[in-house]
Design brief:
Elements lengths: L1 H18 L8 H7 L4 H22 L6 H26 L13 H11 L2 H24 L1
Helix pairs in contact: 1-2, 1-6, 2-6, 3-4, 3-5, 4-5
């Protein structure tokens, strides 16, 4: 677990330095790599990030939100949607236990990068770095 996170952080830093594109943040791909064997959790986290982004875009029509305010608002929305997902989703639908959000902060960090960059480069970078970190960690575990 710790190995995967450290490998993910190193790969994310290298990827960001080489391409100039943040893969959803520095820690997000590392934590996503931990849960690549649970794709429903990854999907729920990405969905919560997009819901956070939608909430931010709605409020930005009426309020001046940028910089630190935007970052904090997206973190709060991410935590809110993650918690609502955890509390309400299983009660509304019969869903598998794997369909829950990864952490409280991860959706907000991802949403912040989705707001700063376009969705396609962010998600493509996130997938690339997460998969690479996952396989490098598995390879190191075999050694």
């Amino acid at each position: 677990m710790v190995t995967t996170i450290l490998i993910g952080i190193v790969i994310a830093l290298l990827y960001t330095e080489l391409t100039g594109i943040l893969p959803g943040g520095i820690i997000v791909p590392a934590l996503m790599a931990l849960y690549l064997d649970q794709p429903l959790r990854v999907a729920a986290t990405v969905l919560a990030a997009f819901l956070s982004l939608a909430g931010y875009r709605f409020l930005s029509r009426y309020f001046l939100i940028f910089g630190r305010r935007r970052f904090v608002l997206l973190l709060l929305f991410g935590a809110l949607f993650g918690q609502l997902w955890f509390m309400l989703w299983p009660r509304l639908f019969a869903v598998p236990f794997d369909l829950r959000v990864i952490g409280w902060i991860i959706p907000g960090l991802l949403a912040n990068n989705l707001a700063r960059q376009k969705a396609l480069p962010t998600l493509a970078s996130l997938a690339t770095v997460s998969v690479l970190a996952y396989f490098v960690a598995k390879l190191i575990a075999l050694l």
